[in-house]
Specification:
Number of strands: 9
Number of helices: 4
Distance between the termini: 38 Å
Oligomer: single chain
Radius of gyration: 20 Å
Structural class: alpha+beta
Shape: globular
Amino acid sequence: MDGDQLEVKVGRYVADILRGNTLIEIQTGSFANARTKLRALTADHRIRLVYPVAKRKWIVKVSKRGKVLSRKPSPRKGRAEDVFNELISMPDLIGKRNFSLDVLLIEQEDLRCDDGKGSWWRKGVSTVDTRLVQVLGRIELDQPGDYLQFIPKELANPFTNAELADAAGLPVDLARKTTYCLRKAGLLREGGWQGKARLLER
């Protein structure tokens, strides 16, 4: 946007974007790598973290000279709840007054080349570039209560992680990470046990 400043020095850190009075950080990888920086910056600055999730992905095979050889859809489809795979490393930031989060649902292309430089499990095929095709949607998480949208309203209260997984169509492991983050943020509380399953209450 007009007026944005890029790569701005803030104390011992460099912020991706300064927009007005808000520092914007774009994180495409692990939040664990940025948590020290984000915790430090939120002490005195408004921080907006932008996290893109590939809801739709294309695998594009290219030659060593960059010629497109094939393009096919990836079977992996991301969803907004994937952000909890990363938030689990810093759930305390959910409740910080200066912290907000944008989850961008995107369509992207992964360009891959059989150049022998990739990992063994990809048999040497490496990802040489990632391209944004379009933004499909945006979820703004400005207040702690906004995170409760990830708990389906029709879900009983209290509920178990297995019930959340079933209602939201999530893997149980991701449901556990979601409720862990929301408990740490004070948005859910433990409500006893149902057999060996922990009960959670809004």
